Amino acid sequence: MRYPDEVNAAEHSTLTPGDRATRTAGAKRVTIGDVAARAGVSKSAVSFVFNNRPGVSAAARERILRAADDLGWQPSARARALSRSRTQAVGLVIRREPELLSTDPFFPLFMAGVEIGLSEQNYSLVLQVVKDQHGERDAYERLARESRVDGVFLTDVRAGDTRPRDVAALGLSVVVVAPEDADTEADVVIGMDDAAGVRRAVHHLHSLGHRHIGHVMGVPGYVHTEARRRAWEDTLVELGLPVGPVVTADFTGSSGARATHELLDLPRPPSAIVYGNDLMAIAGISAATDRGIRVPEDLSVVGFDDIPLAPYIVPPLTTVRQNVVAWGTAAAQTLVSLVEGKQPPEIRLPSVEFVVRGSTGPTRHRRPS
Amino acid sequence: MRYPDEVNAAEHSTLTPGDRATRTAGAKRVTIGDVAARAGVSKSAVSFVFNNRPGVSAAARERILRAADDLGWQPSARARALSRSRTQAVGLVIRREPELLSTDPFFPLFMAGVEIGLSEQNYSLVLQVVKDQHGERDAYERLARESRVDGVFLTDVRAGDTRPRDVAALGLSVVVVAPEDADTEADVVIGMDDAAGVRRAVHHLHSLGHRHIGHVMGVPGYVHTEARRRAWEDTLVELGLPVGPVVTADFTGSSGARATHELLDLPRPPSAIVYGNDLMAIAGISAATDRGIRVPEDLSVVGFDDIPLAPYIVPPLTTVRQNVVAWGTAAAQTLVSLVEGKQPPEIRLPSVEFVVRGSTGPTRHRRPS
DNA sequence: CCTCCCCTTCAAACCGGTTTAATCATCGCG
DNA sequence: CGCGATGATTAAACCGGTTTGAAGGGGAGG
């Protein structure tokens, strides 16, 4: 695994990147032909063994495996991709504003989960980060036309989103990652019932005595935004409470702060607010604190995501937690099955959890109005 | 881009994934041969045009481009990879504990930056998330042996890290992503002088009257952890201040809280603490607040990263900001040059910023001891 | 008008696997 | 002992591009 020290030392001063490339290129790749020769069989035999198909005697298989091992050979993904017309790679296109990117709790965990599902099957993940819709369309187009991937995940789905069809028309398999009941044109949707978390949250606030519960929405149009809003609204109705004030925001901290001020400026401000994500909720706590409103004594706050920071802010944030890693793994397994034309596994995603911490508390008696 | 509605409707009920795969496979791929035929030239001519090499008349080039456009053809990355023995893809392996993954401000931004640098050159990014050192080694091994990528980024470098050599020995080009002065065995290191931010932070605290400044380190052994610690220490020495207490933590919120308690439990606790990242700093504020110690009146806090939440916690966090996106772009451009044997561009990374917010303030007179 | 040279153009080999179809050896059975 | 069936084995075609080397064509110079 190491170059001899003296070689490295000798080259160290004069070595330019170009030289290095040339040097490494010198090491001739070992191919299936070399393995076949060493095992005294044909290339086909080697291929058969490595794709475990019948038609090779136990003795031959044995020799082939040993030869491959001796030579440290592994089929080249490049060559295999060409002859099988399949890349064994899938794509994920992330569209995010820079502001939200580094704080988004979803994608890193989702990717980690996807990775688990993919590596089991020896698939790779090709990632693309774009900043607008235009870039996203181009990305899928390129991924498909250049045959870089066999399938893609679709996230951040909007109501009436045409991407599932568009992408399928490019010849790619598609798995849509969206809340369970999302209304999309997709064949396959993998999602959790995240609205359940919001319902639990509203019930929790109700049991603490809150009767006037507001909501700060994320970017309108996305199915997860709407699912959360609807869950909040439906639960209020179900509990016989008035549907409280809603303000539209965009998942950023600044929008969460602004929305909170709007709600607190109302003639009759809510005593509790359910936010579309943790970032807005935390910014909301900050906004309230700035106005001298104490959390949770004067205002209860519920977030969504359970980011790792949630327990460490003041007060610790009550929020909703999804198992995003499991979600990603399920999505990956499904997509691979789809690509290979197999029946996707029956998957049960773990349910959403509601985590009670310090940002929610009992209502006080009505403040003097 | 859409299937006729009636077709979709008819299939909707009975469609299984397997069927879909078969259906889409029916659409015959258009190849370089088709384009050549349509333009009335040989495949070579088409290839020449698309790799802009000389040897094709203007007229022919014109016809070829139009033919390709008409047919919507684009060279297949699969085929190109095989014949050029190059994938036009590079790899990034992320090793992170689940706890840190969703809160890590570095990787998403870095990836976004990398993406910018890569897409300019039509390269793709292959991502792998692993959870331990063993998985990481396997990941590089697989990436190289299966010829999935031409080069990789190396992050989270430790002092004396052998990965640069190991990976180069696999025949991959390598760019090491680490602070400027990192001591590694790599040919190419792309980094920022992030220690400068810590120096600025210590000077700032000094100017506010602090004379007793502690530090909470991240995971020991990493070059960025050590660079920050060293910057803190060197600056104290330079200012003629005693080198304050240091506690080792691991970049997680819980470790930051614990470390903070340790520092505050000291017979003579520091009046200011510099943390290795924002997450620990925020957890530190929370820990201090729990003990009735006010920030910044009783304790000043400085973080590192400037996560989007930093302005929205109470009090807003003073911290150090690096332009991670630019860093990623630079790393990507360098890696591509390396892969292609070209001279890497001369790159000037923007310098680190120090952002003063509310978590730092003047010292009060010495508290009764 | 003939050479020589340069520019275009293209057929064929190649990259490293997979897959098909044909050959060969073996074996059971009438 | 002959024959069809069965399983092992492999040569050759193929995936869709790139690259090489040779052939063809036109213009400048003598």
What does this structure look like?
Chain A has helices spanning 5-12, 17-26, 32-39, 43-50, 58-71, 77-84, 98-101, 106-120, 133-145, 163-169, 195-207, 223-238, 253-265, 278-290, 324-339, and strands at residues 89-95, 124-130, 151-154, 173-177, 189-190, 213-217, 246-248, 272-275, 300-302, 319-321, 353-355. In chain A, the strands form three sheets. The first copy, chain A, has a five-stranded parallel sheet, sandwiched between helices. In chain A, helix 3 crosses helix 4, helix 8 crosses helix 15 and helix 11 runs parallel beside helix 12. With 369 residues, the first copy, chain A, is α/β, with parallel strands linked by helices. Helices cover 45% and strands 12% of the residues of chain A. Chains A and B meet through helix 2, helix 6, helix 7, helix 8 and strand 2 of A and helix 2, helix 6, helix 7, helix 8 and strand 2 of B. Strand 2 (124-130) of chain A pairs antiparallel with strand 2 of chain B, so a sheet runs across the interface. The structure holds a DNA duplex (30 and 30 nucleotides).
